[in-house]
Amino acid sequence: MPDDTLPDDTLPDSTLLWYIPNQTHPGHRGEPAVAEHNGLDHLTEHARALEDDGWDGALLGTSWGRPDTFTVATALAARTTTFRPLIAVRPGYWRPAHLAASAATLDHLTGGRVDVNIVSGQDDLAAYGDAEGDPAHRYARTREFLQIVRRLWTQDEVTYEGEHFSVRGSRLGIRPADVAGRRHPRLYFGGASDAAQRVAATEADVQLFWGEPLDDVAERIARLRALALELGREHDPLEFGLRVTTVVRDTTEEAWDAAEAKVAQMAAAAGAQPSAGHRPAAVGQQRLLDLAARGEVLDGNLYTTPGRFGGEGAATTWLVGSPQDVAASLRRYQDLGVTHFVLSDTPYLEEIRRQGRQLLPLLRG
User: Fold this and answer.
1) Which CATH number applies to 15-245+333-364: 3.90.105.10, 3.40.50.720, 3.20.20.30, 3.30.365.10?
2) Which of 125, 153, 227, 237 would suit a FRET pair with 28, their CA atoms being 20 to 30 Å apart?
3) In terms of Cα–Cα distance, which of 314, 334, 251 is closest to 2?
4) Model-level pTM greater than 0.85?
5) Where is the Luciferase-like domain (predicted)?
6) C-beta of residue 20 within 8 angstroms of C-beta of residue 58
C-alpha cells in the first residue's frame, strides 16, 4: 500500500498539463463517443475546464490523419485566456523556418502561451511526403530542426547549412513573447534511444519520459545530464517531464477497483489474451512493455498491466490511487528533478474536473 504520510512540499514551480487527444474518430482509450467530439465547441469545453480547474494547459496529440495540431491550438488559444497549448509537431511534416514563424506568431498573439513538442518517431511518412525512415538520419534531422528553430527565435538573422535543412539570411518579422525571462516557447522532446538522448541533451528544453519507475527515471536523468556535459550543451540546463496516465478516485481502494475494471475491459477487447506480435520499433515503448516482467505494480502504485492488453505510450503504465497517493508519487518524481507533468485519464472531460479539483490542490499548495 502507498505511504499515507505526505510531505509538506508541493509542486509550485512545476508545469501541470493535461492531454487533449485530438482524434478524428471518437472513443479514444474508452472515451464515450460524443457527437462533434472534435468540434470547436466540444474542444473549447475541455480547454476552458482546464482553465477553470487550475491546469496550465494541455498537450495536443499528433499523427497523420488527426486534425492538424497547430490549427486546433490556434482555435483554442483564441477562445481562452490562460490555456497553454503544448503543440506536437513533426520534422518532415514541418520545415523549421515555417514552424519557427508560426509558433512565434501565435506566441506573440497569445502573450507567451505556446510551447512545442517535437516528435521524431515513425509515422505514416509517405502520406505526407516524407521519406526519412532511418532512425539515425531522422534524429540528425531533428537536431538541425531544433537548432534552426531556436536560432530564428533568438537571433536577428540566421544562415545555416546542414545536411537536412538550410536557410540563408532568414529573419522573423515577429518574435515570440518575452514573458518573465522566457524568451521563446519551450521545446519539449521525447525518445529513449541513444540517438534521441543525444539530441535531447544538447538541443531540447524539456525531455519527456513515459511512466517508468523512479529508479529508471533517475538513471535516465543522470545519463542526460552527463551527456549534456560531455557534448557541450550551450543552452539553459535541460528540464525533465513525465507523461503518464493517472487513475484517481476518492480512496485507494476505489482507484484500484476502477483501474482493474478498465484493464478488464481492455482484456475483453483483446480476447483476454496479452498483446503479442513484433517488438515495437520505439525504444521507449519497449522499455515500458518490459516493465510487466518486473511486477504488476512497481513503486507502490505504478500499474504495468495495461501494457499487456494494448496500452501504448502514456496508457502503458498508470499511476493509481487516491489524490493523496498520486500526489505523493508525483512529488517523488519531482525529487528526482522532474518539473513538467502531462497527466490524463478517460473520460477526459470528467477527469479534467475530478483531478483538477482533487489532485491539483495537493500539488499547487
Assistant:
1) 3.20.20.30
2) 125
3) 251
4) yes
5) 24-340
6) yes
Q: How far apart are CA 57 and CA 48, in angstroms?
A: 10
Q: Indicate the domain borders of the chain.
A: 15-245+333-364
Alpha-carbon dihedral sign for residues 226, 231, 235, 241: negative
State the Cα–Cα distance between residues 271 and 10, nearest whole angstrom: 42
Q: DSSP alpha helices (H): ranges in the chain?
A: 40-52, 69-78, 96-110, 135-154, 194-203, 214-231, 252-269, 283-290, 323-336, 348-358, 360-364
Place of cell 512565434: 104
pLDDT, one tens digit per residue, over 221-231 is: 999 999 999 99
Tell me the CA distances in angstroms from 144 to 140, 148, 241, 328, one per residue in order: 7, 6, 23, 39
User: In sequence order, which residues have a C-beta less than 8 Å from that of residue 171 and are 6 or more positions away?
Assistant: 156, 157, 158
The set of residues, in sequence order, having a beta carbon less than 8 Å from that of 12 and lying 6+ positions away, is 364, 365
How many other CB atoms are there within 10 angstroms of residue 24's CB atom?
A: 11
DSSP 292: G
Residues 145 and 100 sit within 8 Å (Cβ to Cβ) = no
The three-state secondary structure class of 204 is coil
Question: With 80 as the cut, is the pLDDT of residue 154 above it?
Answer: yes
> Strand pairing of 115-118 and 84-89?
parallel
**pLDDT of 275 over the 60 cut:** no
Rounded distance between C-alpha atoms, residue 85 and residue 83, angstroms: 6
Give the span between the Cα atoms of 345 and 355, in whole angstroms.
9
Q: Cis before residue 347, ω within 30 degrees of 0?
A: yes
Distance of CA 317 to the CA centre of its chain: 14
pLDDT attached to residue 30: 64
Quote the CA–CA distance of 92 and 130 in Å, as a whole number: 6
